Amino acid sequence: MIREATVHDVPEIRAMIRELATYEKAAEQARATEEQLHAALFGEHPAARVLIAEDDGTGEVAGFALWFPRFSTWTGTRGMHLEDLYVRPHTRGAGHGKALLAALAAICRGHGFERFEWMVLDWNEPAIAFYEGLGAELLEEWTLCRLTGGPLEELAARAPAVVRAAR
Pfam families per the record (predicted)? Predict the structure, then answer.
């Protein structure tokens, strides 16, 4: 079963985020607290939405998908960015990942979104094969850029005074 997450799912979502970060060899980077997730997902201005996959037989939470809308200047339309897709290892192979992606595709179609995009680590061969099996196109010519920490602060310090005052 696929369903929208509720506030009661926040501890389970946080646990799965940590499980995913451990799998991706980056557990120390998964610092989001339950309070932060609660505000981001269920606060006054939600930043993202989450779907939960539950095992039909046991009712156990098998996985989740966290997404948010994005906008394409080229198409002039909104799209969907899938930030995280995670299915717990002991529940894999039962169709939860495909069901989550199918539900997200249906949300895209229902909202008129033309693009459904996400990232995958280049070493995650099982995920790459899974996505390609669904017909996903891997855009190898694009490289993700990221500013954090000191470089982000240094660049922000160069902003015009009007922009710095609005922070």
Answer: Acetyltransf_1
Out of 64, 86, 113, 131, the active site residue is 131
For residue 99, tell me if it sits in a domain. yes
Report the alpha-carbon distance of residue 88 to residue 49 in Å, rounded.
19
Query: Could you tell me which residues come within 8 angstroms of residue 12 by beta carbon, excluding any fewer than 6 positions away?
Result: 52, 61, 64
**Does some domain include residue 38?**
yes
CB atoms within 10 A of CB 139: 9
Q: pLDDT tens digits for 63-83?
A: 999 999 999 999 999 999 999
Residue 166 in this model has a pLDDT that exceeds 80 = no
CB 66 within 8 A of CB 58: no
Q: Which residues pair with 70 in a beta bridge?
A: 79
Q: Quick check: is 23 catalytic?
A: no
What pLDDT is recorded for position 167?
56
Rounded distance, CA 140 to CA 143, Å? 8
Which residues span the domain enclosing 129?
2-140
Helix axes 10-23, 34-42, angle to 10 degrees: 110
